[in-house]
Amino acid sequence: MWLGPEEVLLANALWVTERANPFFLLQRRRGHGKGGGLTGLLVGTLDVVLDSSARVAPYRILHQTQDSQIYWAVACGSSRKEITKHWEWLENNLLQTLAIFDNEEDITTFVKGKIHGIIAEENKNQQPQGEEDPGKFKEAELKMRKQFGMPEVEKLVNYYSCSYWKGRVPRQGWLYLTVNHLCFYSFLLGKEVTLIVQWVDVTQLEKNATLLFPECIKVSTRDSELYFSMFLNINETFKLMEQLANIAMRQLFDNKGFTEDALLPKPSKPLKNISALKRDLDARAKNEWYRATFRLPKDERLDGHTDCTLWTPFNKIHILGQMFVSNNYICFASKAEEACHLIIPLREVTIVEKADSSSVLPSPLSISTKSKMTFLFANLKDRDFLVQRISDFLQKTPSKQSSNNGRGQKKSDHTQEETPELSPSGPLSSSHSSPLDNQLASFCTEKVPTASQGLLKLFGPNCDEILGSRGAKETMKEESWNIHFFE
């Protein structure tokens, strides 16, 4: 493949020149091919430990000029056939043209421009496939496919440097986590270790620390137990392994393949060495946690979250926590576990307004609902952007016209049921259905969400309770509650 010209200061370090002309060199990595010997073992070990690209592309072409000490890598190849094709193209198309130039700087500029043009033409002919992964990650994915014989459809999620414990000897290498497999490769002084484990075969994942295995991850399968240690970030690795194993189990139960989330928003800044698939999985994990924490519908998607405080009138303090905004809900979870959880459906929100800031209450935000409840948030870092996002979601919620129609139906139902005809004996006559039955029928057929009013208002009081001592007690309770809330 053609490369964007990159500087190479030491052209002959660990490389052997096989062909040369006045402007280009074709080189092979030492130890690759026949007769590697001890040098091949050392170079191969270095390539694996340092994650060198030469492990995948052991051939390369360098551009050089006679008086310059700087070389430029213009092409690489995984096989002699591939690199020979590039070499022949350069000899047939550039050698005669370059011989005309008198200035070496002009020669280098022309070669670099020609190579950039070839790469641009190749990228133009390729169909864009969603979000581009970083170049370093593409290189790692190519290594993974070549080393383990994976098909093109197998997607690499992330890769980590670690050690695999074979007996009591650690083997330093690279752990590749794909959608369907856990793979490991190590090559140290001629000793090669290759592992391929399907996620559906994993029975248990454990993170523990012992004297023999310091801070390691134990992967249990039906047939064996594998130990990996010496991670740079063991928590991140273990969390991703758990997520991939859980996804594999769900696919096994649902009989569905893994598909990337097309609705995932693209990042404002390109993320280095993080694939689009890894970002997709991180977003899925956040969405699953959000839905499980607040018990929301399966299709609810988290848009974002921010730190803030919430005024709680029951104990009259500001609770520190996080606000979560999705397409249908505004939720709040306190930092202290189980201290306070709040769920506000956007269909119930009537007013979202910015209150006046003060030293006691910086950047406050007030949210009012149809039930005349007001929630006061404060200490919001980007209040203007948050208000804009909530406004966008409110515009997408069902129109108020349907809710107004529902209210009209409720009012008509109540007017019909307020004067039921009673028989002399007390119970309702058979020619008229009971108000409770009518109320249940209208309540069940309505599409308006439940819990909009109290049960007493919805179903009405019983006549016997109003006249008896029980009715008097209920009236006293209501008065006591009214006095309590008024205070």
Automatic annotation (TrEMBL):
Pfam families on file: GRAM
Domain GRAM: 142-209, 288-356
Ranges of compositional bias, category Polar residues: 397-407
Region (Disordered): 397-437
InterPro entries xref list: GRAM (IPR004182), PH-like_dom_sf (IPR011993), TCB1D9/TCB1D9B_PH-GRAM1 (IPR036014), TCB1D9/TCB1D9B_PH-GRAM2 (IPR036017)
Start-end of Low complexity biased regions: 422-436
Descriptive protein name: GRAM domain-containing protein
Species the sequence originates in: Phrynocephalus forsythii
